[in-house]
Amino acid sequence: MTKLFQVFFLLFLFAPFNFFAQTTDIADALKEHVRLLASPEMEGRGLGTAGIELAREYIIDEFEAAGLEPIGESFLHPFQIRVGLAWVPAYNIVGKIQGNNLDLRDEVIVIGAHYDHMGYVIRAGEKVIYHGADDNASGTATLIELAKYFSANRDQIGRTIVFAAFDAEESGLHGARRFVGDSIVNPADIKLMFSLDMVGMLEEYGGLDMKGIGALDGGEEIAARIAGEKDIRIKARGHQIERRTDTWPFGSVGIPAIHVFTGLTSPYHQPEDTYDLLDYDGMSSVKKYMAKLVTEYSNLPQLQPSSSFVAAARVVDGQVVELRRPFFNYGIISHTGSGHHKYRDEFFDANAVFNFGIGLFAQFHLSDKFTLQPEVLFDLNGSKWVEDNFRRQSLTAPLNIQYNLFSEGTEARVFVLGGPYFRYNFGGKQGGISIDYDDEFSETEWGYNIGFGLEISRFHFGFTTRRALTDIYQNESASGEIRDASAYFTFGLKF
Ligand SMILES: [Zn+2]
What we know:
Structural class: alpha+beta
Distance between the termini: 65 Å
Number of helices: 9
CATH architecture of the largest domain: 3-Layer(aba) Sandwich
Number of domains: 2
Helix content: 25-40%
Low-confidence stretches: 9-21
CATH superfamily of the largest domain: Zn peptidases
Bound molecules: zinc ion
CATH topology of the largest domain: Aminopeptidase
């Protein structure tokens, strides 16, 4: 062997060992953070508990040791949230590393991870702790290691990086909401946000979700290239912002916000989410991937929302201020209530029977005020008759326009509704005898609906009355015209 070849051979031989040594160090450090944060002493890091106080002290110590600078006077961003009748104190923990590029350092990339979890319950006299190792000691640990990495490599970052350990995520993203709402960092300066929420299952999940990466102009290309270099498989991407983690308060005001996630592979929201189950080599890979990715983003001349993300947003004075509802969504809906027949030419109505319908609905959000909602329902309807019950099976298709009286971003709205419906009757019995749609009863029916409702996140609630404008008989009966009428509580779930 030549000397040169020997040198190369030795380098080649030892390089992998060095690589593993380094990986193992980081994996060990991550494991130690998670072991402590998810330990019984931390009591599942429930809101306002002594356990979360310990977790907080730990994170502050780690931020300090990493060399982060506080944004205000301390690392703590205190706020209160209402739980039942009480106000509970909560604290985000926020630190930063100033960027190096004088032109870019006023712009900020936020890396966040919520550190709260579900706490504990007393079950049959025993304390049952929800340890929350994957959710989200894993993200918190990765955040700490990223803080250390960027602190040691601060000469390589252009923009300022803000590290935020959010409180009160599990009870409704309160920490991230207050971070944005209280302008801890001016939201206009935040160009990009990551929420590390459940990153401890890389291998088992078979990759990494980067949902929302397409909200950043050119974001997907860079994320994919670095994933190739780091041998990570990206599973989810696109410009949709995840609503169920701290990305949402950022995304809903137009900041590209990415959920870094290794799936719901762990025992999600169960006491069994413990530190021994996590994939620490995988977390180490996630940390290295994020380190490279954020370094690169921090130095790009421009960080802008992508055109597809902006198209889904409301822009005021050139600033994205709010995400709009997607034009189209759909889900399942149920109608539960009662119905009866109205005798148009008599002085009485029939008594009511239980009515029920279930089916699919779609929504077309035509504007901020108007939504068109067609539905297709399998429907049981009818009425009490003098002798016995009249029960019909139908396919019912309401088509309602909803007018929003009130809406809060894309998250909640209150509306009134009205529109026609069409009904096709195909089965049923009257007093034990099958209904005859050939000669006696009408096979089709139409009428109108009116009602009101509200939507919160993916949940749809409403009240609808439905009135037929056609007779249940093909030819008018001896009692004159008889029409179906019904009233329902509706419950829907959007996918
Ligand atoms: Zn979580």
